[in-house]
């Protein structure tokens, strides 16, 4: 069996997050349509735009390592998105819908934060300074999105979810 290196692991994880970002980009408009709160709708639409920029950055990282941009199925993101779709279906029209959608979105953000943090560390270890910078930029965006979502949950959506329909 061929020896696998950190380079191989970096590439495989890059393919994983590339798939995840593309899947997220396709899912965000559906979440925006399902959201009842205008701020949450806008947050999803804003993040869709941001996600498309992150996909472009990932394509640049692939180019830097001499590989073509290609994803591989990310079971984790498939599961998280599936949970979000269940919330959309089961809580449609209820006061708890937006809180549930926001929680699903934060699960996505936390997954992305973990992946980008790891990829940044590995890129630095591998001497891929430009790739590390690109990945770090995305990590900052994902963390900022998570903070915005937390603030929206704490100031509006969680208390609204308690109310009777």
Write structural notes for this entry.
The chain has 165 residues and is mainly α. The chain is 82% helix and 0% strand. It contains 5 helices and no strands. The chain has helices at residues 6-34, 38-64, 75-90, 97-125, 129-162. Helix 1 (6-34) runs antiparallel to helix 4 (97-125) and helix 3 runs antiparallel to helix 4. The longest helix has 34 residues, at 129-162. It is elongated, with a radius of gyration of 17 Å. The N and C termini lie far apart (60 Å).
List the helices and strands and how they pair.
Layout: H1 6-34, H2 38-64, H3 75-90, H4 97-125, H5 129-162
Helix pairs in contact: 1-2, 1-3, 1-4, 2-5, 3-4, 4-5
Q: Tell me, what's the shape?
A: elongated
C-alpha end-to-end distance: 60 Å
Question: Helical region count?
Answer: 5
**Computed structural class:** mainly alpha
Please state roughly what percent of the residues sit in beta strands, choosing from under 5%, 5-15%, 15-25%, 25-35%, 35-45% or over 45%: under 5%
Radius of gyration: 17 Å
H/E element sequence: HHHHH
Oligomer: single chain
Largest beta sheet, briefly? none
Model regions low in confidence, pLDDT < 50 over at least 5 residues:
none
Strand runs, count: 0
**How much is the average pLDDT?**
94
């Amino acid at each position: 069996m061929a020896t696998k290196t950190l380079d191989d692991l970096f590439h495989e994880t890059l393919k994983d997050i590339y798939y995840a970002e593309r899947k997220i980009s396709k899912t965000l408009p559906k979440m925006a349509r399902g959201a009842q709160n205008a701020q949450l709708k806008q947050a999803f639409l804003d993040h869709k735009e941001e996600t498309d920029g992150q996909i472009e950055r990932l394509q640049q990282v692939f180019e830097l390592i001499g590989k073509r941009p290609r994803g591989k199925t990310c079971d984790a993101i498939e599961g998280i998105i599936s949970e979000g779709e269940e919330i959309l279906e089961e809580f449609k029209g209820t006061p708890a819908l937006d809180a549930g959608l926001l929680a699903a979105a934060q699960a996505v953000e936390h997954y992305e934060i973990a992946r980008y943090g790891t990829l940044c560390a590995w890129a630095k270890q591998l001497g891929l300074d430009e790739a590390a910078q690109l990945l770090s930029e995305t990590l900052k965006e994902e963390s900022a999105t998570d903070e915005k979502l937390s603030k929206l949950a704490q100031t509006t959506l969680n208390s609204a979810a308690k109310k009777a329909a």
